[in-house]
Amino acid sequence: MSEKFSRRDFLKLAGVGAATSAILTGCGPASRYVKREPYMQMPEYNYNGQSTYYATTCRECAAGCGLIVRTVQGRAIKTEGNAGNPLNLGKTCARGQATLHGLYNPDRVQEPLKRSARGGDSTQAMDWDAAIQVVADALKNNKPEEIAFLMGMAPDHLFDLVSDLAKATGMNAPLRFGALGMFEARATLSKAAENLFGEASLPFFDVGGAQVVFSFGANFLETWLSPVSYTRGFAGLREAKTKMRGKFVQFESRMSQTGGKADEWIPLRPGTEALVALAIGKLASEIRGGAMPRAFENVDPIDAASKSGIKLETLEHLAGMFAGSNGALAIPGGPALGQSNGLAVAEAVLALNAISDNFGKPGGVYLSALAPNQSEYQRPASAQEMQEFVQKMADGKIKVLFVHGVNPLFELPTALGFGGASKSVSQIISFATFPDETAREADYVFPDHHGLESWGYQRVATGSAQPVLSGAQPVVSPYYNTRATADVLIAAAQLAGGSFASALPFKDEVEFLHGKVSALMGEVDGSISAPDLPTFMAYFQQHGGYWRNSDERVAPKAGDALNREISAEVAEFAGEGEFFFVPFVSPTLAEAGANKPWLQELPDPTTTVMWNTWVEMNPETAHELGIENDDVVRIVSEAGELEVPVYLYPAIRPDTIAIPFGQGHTAYGRYAENRGVNPADLLGQHFNEAGDLAFAGMKVKVEKTGAKKPLSRLESMMGVYGIGLGEEH
Amino acid sequence: MATLSDLKISEVKLGEEHTGKWGMVIDQDICTGCQACVAACAMENNLSFVGEEDSGYGRSMHWIRIERFWEGEYPEVKMTPNQPMMCQQCGSATCEPVCPAFATVHSQAEQLNLQVYNRCVGTRYCANNCPYQVRSFNWRDYERPEPLPNQLNPDVTVRRRGVMEKCTFCIQRIHKAQDKAKSEGREVVDGEFTTACAQACPANAITFGRVDDPESMVSQLAKRSHGVKHLEELGTLPNVTYFKGG
Amino acid sequence: MIKSIFDWLKQPLGLIAVGITVLTLFSVAAYGIYTTQQAPEQPIQFPHQTHVAFGIQCLYCHPGASKGPAAGLPSQAKCWACHNQIAKTETSALLAPLKEAVLSGTPIQWVPVAQVPDFVQFNHRAHIAAGKNCEDCHGDMSKVTIAQNPQVFNMGWCLNCHVESAGEDHEKLVKLSDCGTCHY
Questions:
Q1: Whole-model pTM?
Q2: Which of A38, A366, A510, C75 has the fewest C-beta atoms under 10 angstroms from its C-beta?
Q3: A593 — phi, psi (to 5°)?
């Protein structure tokens, strides 16, 4: 190329070349070269290009919503709610919609794996026969009391199978845990029900039938217990169809998505929830007249006002509202229960309902109906029970640990030391569908199918008046070389022989399921009935489960709910620092959503942040500290520290900061890994009287780091013209 | 015989006679902002996810988003009722006349604002001119690694780089329902089908249907006194009615 | 330097060179376009004309056409239902791939012939219901082995037929010429 040949000339010639090659190659559509594979044997109920719909159960949380999945040519295309299922009546939440991004996630565990070294990436593929042999050896070659199962809150059929196996062989009973259950403080709720009503159960709050709802921290529109059902209840509260539009008051230190819908949002000082509830009870009882109940006798509303930071007039106004309504309902939940006095909060708030005498009445408090094949309420393990289990692991009393449906290394507070204790367990076998943190620390990963490829059932713990057993069936054939954990256990038990073989005398998972469901066939009040098992199971699959037609919620026996002392003590806070620390479950990601790209791209309902973690701080406080939006700060608690960008949140107390739980994975696939932080790293080992973690019972320090990390938010896009679109009208 | 040129460019009747065909009513008082509609829309309509960096630039492909604004200051701060915002399928849309390629045209048959992907050349004039800011542009060919494409809805085109897109009122569902009704020799019944967002909504805050049928659920609801149409004063004739508060 | 090239091109020899280049480019491009319009190589040289001659209806193998958007390809189980009973299946070289596919349980990978681009949402059912016959678009299958497109499926061709079939019915014309009828 001579020096006369300028850059401009070169571009001219290059342009001619590019145009020529485009003409030569670009004329035919690329799709011309695709191949079409017809069915080898088309199912007779299929037509080319037409959808087939299957009923199954959502596995994104343990609520047990029914799904109808649209499939086209063997691929799952879209999930919708099952309109027949009494729990969700055809509706889903965002996570139920995005479950397909789990099914077709590019980072699933594709085959059984043996890990060369725990925590490492180097693995060897195995075949399933060898995998089953490993499980059989683990069962056979260890003492039963040295074998433990750690399971998630779903699915119930596998829990039943392992429970049966444990009962027959003397193995440790399976332990169930989930971060959602921890942040819901389920143990506290059932303990409070036991103390007040004499029955350990999960209370059911009929929000839809109420006129006035006081919620003390319960995030029932987000992830709490059964969000789809509670959202329907909330719509019922607001819709003025048969009654007046209901009022909603939320007491919490940081405005949650649920709190954002409240008519009155009361930012009380963390730890004073019990005191405030009792003070409102006292004031309301005064308005109602009659003898002052014992529960409220010793409370001083003026003291409550000064300690909680709520004005006395506000307390009186709220008490008037509660006393003046025929349908007042009080709900305890969320961070209010995750404090040192959580049990007292739950009791005080539940007791408030006695004022409006709503127990077992529409718009009031019930005990949840037991599911059709359930004899007593089973709650997941509390954090304290998990701590005891971790101690057992650390003491070397557990030789083999099986993990299914839960990711303790991510979901448990780091301070509980699961990671360290697992080193004392000689063999860890994970059944994880995704390569999560715990699977990375396991010696073997024997992947279970995704929920949409699985058989099973889930008992609806709460949210439906009718007892519901949601049924699951595969809607597509397994995409990878995975195998149902129930099938693996059944096969391994047969190989292990002895009491193992006799405990699980089944051909496969489906035969086991039939055995568990067949007793329902003879019931008269059921949604389906059939003279023989094959027909019954066909209906069970077709309708997505079985439910009774009657309302089987239990009216709590609450004669003496107010005739007892309830502690009005303010909660104690662990650690030093100027800020109360509120971790909350991300409404969009929850405990296991971080690996689904579209859930990551959903804006958080309150902050509109996507793809990351933030810490919420009051703008006034931040201003005083010289902190701005997107400044990275270091949060230091007694248990740990982490660095996270600041979101200036106008609806949080100046003395409180809040961090969402859901991100901060170190494994779990490309969309989750190395993104955001996990607030569980900050949590210490403090429990309330019911054994739940006092996750909202800590004080933390905030330090500037000088770094900046811009958060992706949806709202900034709308601020292009300086003001938001909504403010103009 | 009629020819194509007989069709006037726009036969939309301006002013009060305009009724539209498909419409929505959204009750903001019961919308909880849970994002189920956003996720449902993404799954139904093959929306790409753009990742953290691009979404930070406002390039996320939400066809529906939930707006929330703040009112007042702590402690009297309030979140305004959640406002699901999507294409309002204007009867007289501001996006339509600015497209040099006639890619965003008004459907005479369905009274919707169409986005014809194969015509779109990516000038983005329409997005600039949309007062509701509901159009999103494919700045890149966003990656959708295997086996995620298995989930794609075969009824909806997968868009490529350089193309504008927006809410279609799930026109594929409209066509499917019409096709089914026609094959059975009947009209489409109100409530027979609905859009992905309305179907998912746990609070039932979204109602979809024929606004030109006075008997339909959506028409009945829209008659309620507290319904408002956003930026109606611009003369856009939007087909979505909002109930602001209780 | 560019200037000297252009000067050389202006003299007769140069003009001839330009002519040859343009012609070459044009023929190569034309050949490229031509190849894209040819019936592609199929795993089995499927003789449509033989099957039509036996009196088998189109909808027997492609029943989806009357039911929904896709006409569909028959499953090999369907092929086998007849061919299993035909002695020639055992001996014919043409049928060997079918036999192998069925016996080994591997799917046959056909190459689609009649295709519309991804941004077109085509529905067979509506066209059959409107009284169109298969051969109106796909040509006479009693004359071809591998299916061939008698015409290019482009929008002008589609729209032409849509406008014609609307006739004087204005409402129908509106529907059939609406962008949103095919593109979404």
A1: 0.91
A2: A510
A3: -95, -5
